[in-house]
Design brief:
about 250 residues, alpha/beta, Rossmann fold, six-stranded mixed sheet, two-stranded antiparallel sheet, about 35% helix, binds adenosine-5'-triphosphate, transport, translocase, ATP hydrolysis activity
Length: about 250
């Protein structure tokens, strides 16, 4: 796939695959092209060439509504200026499943409540979304994507604004969503979170994939040094058995 924005080639021949029903991290330095790639995968940004196929279906040729049933996208710091309640924002995720003017059915109401529960925001259901903190808003936007019940979930920095506990519970939630068969791809800046929680990583730099594959085999100190120019040491957390990464300057 090749994607240009504003006349500039940003994604230069990326070819990548995310294993179905798994949690994958999209990582890479600032300006590498992560957001642009996610926007292209979500069909928000049209590539000059290339295609995005999911489960045998080509996402670009598809009517918007059908695509929204397949793929949900949470953009980085998506604006929430509309004065709506949290519940109404999450209910927007149900739109692809309802016909025009159709009142929410039981399945939609349950999906909204379940999504609010999943992100721990049920008690905020009646709050105006414009009054929320950055972290609360981030969780509401994740709930909206969950309510969409798509089989592909694309997230741009889903842990932005979140405190450490909320970061861990978000990654745990994404893992459990993936375990139900949903394919999850999340751009993450925190390599520690990617290492500890994701099944695989796609590493981009300068609009190209420089490495991709199973997390432990791919996210090595050598790769981190080459891509980010820092020293990294991988430890094992004695409590969880998961990898922990320490960083230092070269
Ligand atoms: N509208 C635009 N016009 C020109 N250049 C753009 C435009 N949008 C993005 N870019 C450039 O494309 C490159 C990739 O941007 P992108 O936002 O995809 O990177 P990223 O990996 O998500 O970065 P970050 O980690 O900083 O969020 C950057 O150099 C950015 O300046």
């Amino acid at each position: 796939m090749r994607v240009s924005v504003g006349g500039k080639l940003i994604i230069d021949g990326i070819d990548c695959t995310v294993p179905p029903g798994s949690l994958a991290a999209l990582i890479g330095p600032n300006g590498a092209g992560k957001s642009t790639l996610l926007r292209a995968l979500a069909a928000v940004e049209k590539p000059q060439s290339g295609s995005v196929s999911f489960d045998g279906s080509e996402l670009y040729g598809m009517p918007r509504r059908e695509r929204a049933k397949l793929a949900a996208f949470v953009e980085q710091d998506a604006a929430t200026e509309l004065s709506l309640t949290v519940e109404a924002v999450v209910a927007l995720g149900r739109m692809p499943h309802l016909s025009l003017w159709q009142a929410p059915d039981d399945a939609s109401r349950t999906a909204v409540t379940d999504a609010l529960d999943a992100v721990g925001m049920r008690e905020f259901a009646g709050r105006d979304v414009t009054t929320l903190s950055g972290g609360e808003r981030q969780r509401v936007l994740l709930a909206k994507a969950l309510a969409q019940q798509a089989r592909l979930l694309l997230l741009d920095e889903p842990t932005n604004h979140l405190d450490i506990r909320a970061q861990l519970s978000t990654l745990a939630l994404l893992r459990s969503v993936a375990s139900t068969g949903v394919t999850v791809l999340a751009a993450l800046h925190d390599l520690g979170l990617a290492a500890a929680w994701c099944d695989s990583v796609i590493v981009v730099a300068d609009g190209r994939v420089v490495a991709a594959g199973e997390t432990a085999a791919t996210l090595t100190p050598e790769l981190i040094r080459d891509v980010y120019g820092v020293r990294a040491t991988v430890f094992t957390d004695p409590a969880s058995g998961r990898p922990v990464i320490g960083f230092g300057e070269l």
